[in-house]
C-alpha cells in the first residue's frame, strides 16, 4: 500500500477544487503520476491493488482501474498478469526525479524573452476599451447601428454560399469585399485602388505590424508624427525600429524637419507614418502642400509613406481632404483603413491598399499572423457597402458625432474651464484638452478610471519630450462619439469633481 502521506496526497488531488473540471479517474491518475514524477514512488515499486486503493480513497474500483489503464498507456506503470501494477523502470530516465519540488516558483526569474518579446511586454500592449465608458477615445456609437439590416444581409450570404461560407477565405480577402472597398475609397477618398491591390485584415493594428516587419529591418529608422498614435509607436518599437519624432504645425507634419533630417543623415529613415486626415491626437489636417512635399520625399529617397486613414469618414467642416495615396503617382504610399470606427469594434475588419509590388509580400506575411479573416462578416460587409447602407450609416453618424463634439466642447467650457482648454477638432471622434493648471496627468487619468471614466493622457503620446510648441503639454484625450449629450453631461460633472479634488 501507499504510505500514509502518499495516500493523503492522492486524496488532496481528488478534493482540490482546481481539479474539479476533471473526471474522478483523471484526478486519481494525475495524482499518482505526480508522485512518480516527484520521485516519491521509485521505479519498480508495486502499487496498491485497484480494489484496495479504491476502498482507501472511497471511490469505485472502476475509477482506479481507469486511472491505472491511463498510467499504463502513458508508460508510467507496468501491469503484470498475476503480479499487479508497478512503477515502470523507464521512469528512472525522468530528469529531476527525486529532487525537491519547488513550492514557490519565481516566474520572473525564469522568464527569458527575446529582445522583441521584452519590448512588447514593456510597452504594455494596447488596452481596448471593452465597454463604451465615458470619453473612451475611438469608440463609436453602436446603439444606432442598423442591426436588422445587417442580419438580413448575413442571412442572404448564408443562403447563397451555404457551407462554402464556413471555409477559409483567401488570405488576401474575399473578392466581393475587396471590390467594394476599392470602389468606396476611389469614390469617397480619392484613392487609386483596384480589388487586386486591397488586402483585407483583422485590424489596422495588424496592418501597422505588417508594415513594420515587411518594409523595414530591426534597427532601421522611421519618421513619426509627434505626438503620435500610441498603437503605431508600439508596433514600430516592437519590430525593433528606431522612431524619429517629427514636430507638428497647425496644418500637420513639419515636412521641412523630415527633409533636414534626411539631408543630415548618413542612413536616413526609410519610411514615414502619417495620420493626415485627422492627426492623432491633435485632429489637425495635413495641408496639401505638405502632402505633396512628403510624396516627393518618398519618390526621391525611395521611402515609404504609411497613411493611417482611421476615421476620415467623420469630418464636420466640409468634405474631407483626399487621401495621400490618391495623390501619389509614384506608388510609394500604403493606405490603411478600418471599419472598427465607422461601424462597430466587434466587426474586426481592416484593410490596406497596397502598391502592386507589395501585394504578394504582404499577403504571404499575413498568412504567418492569422491566415485569413472570417468569410461571413466579409461577405456581409460587402453587401452592406454595395447596398448603400454603409454610406447612409456614415452620413447619419457624421451628423450625430458633430452634435456630440459641439456638446462636449460646450460642457468642457462650462464645467472644466478652470482646469483645461479644449482643442475642438474639425473631425474625428475625440477632442484633446490641455491643462491650464498644474495637475498631475497620470493621477488625473487614474482617478478618472477608478470613477468609471476613460481618458487617454497626452504626454504619453509624444515620441519625444518636446513638441512644436516646446515642452509637451499635459492633458487628456476625450472621446465623444459613443455617448449621448445627457450622458456626456453626467460624466463631465463627475470629471469636474475629480479634477477639483486633485487641485486642493
What descriptive keywords fit this protein?
504 residues; alpha/beta; Arc Repressor Mutant, subunit A; Aspartate Aminotransferase, domain 2; 3 domains; 4-stranded antiparallel sheet; 16 strands; 44% helix
CATH class of the largest domain: Alpha Beta
- The gyration radius over C-alpha positions equals 30 Å
What is the domain total for the residues? 3
How many helices? The count is 18
Helix percent reads 40-55%
CATH superfamily of the largest domain: Type I PLP-dependent aspartate aminotransferase-like (Major domain)
Distance between the termini: 71 Å
Number of separate strands: 16
Give me the side-by-side strand order of the main sheet. Answer: 3-10-9-8-7-4-5-6
CATH topology descriptor of the largest domain: Aspartate Aminotransferase, domain 2
Determine the mean pLDDT: 90
Net shape: elongated
Q: Structural class from helices and strands?
A: alpha/beta
CATH architectural name of the largest domain: 3-Layer(aba) Sandwich
Model description:
This protein is an alpha/beta fold. It has 3 domains: 4-93, Winged helix-like DNA-binding domain superfamily/Winged helix DNA-binding domain (Arc Repressor Mutant, subunit A); 145-388, Type I PLP-dependent aspartate aminotransferase-like (Major domain) (Aspartate Aminotransferase, domain 2, 3-Layer(aba) Sandwich); 392-503, Aspartate Aminotransferase, domain 1, CATH 3.90.1150. The chain has 18 helices and 16 strands. It has helices at residues 4-15, 24-37, 50-57, 61-74, 107-110, 115-123, 147-161, 175-189, 204-215, 230-238, 255-264, 288-301, 324-327, 356-367, 375-386, 389-415, 441-450, 485-503; strands at residues 77-80, 84-87, 198-201, 221-226, 242-249, 252-253, 271-274, 304-308, 333-338, 350-353, 420-422, 430-435, 456-457, 466-467, 470-471, 475-479. α1 packs across α2 (24-37), α2 crosses α4 (61-74) and α17 packs across α18. It is elongated. The protein starts with a helix and ends with a helix. 41% of the residues are buried.
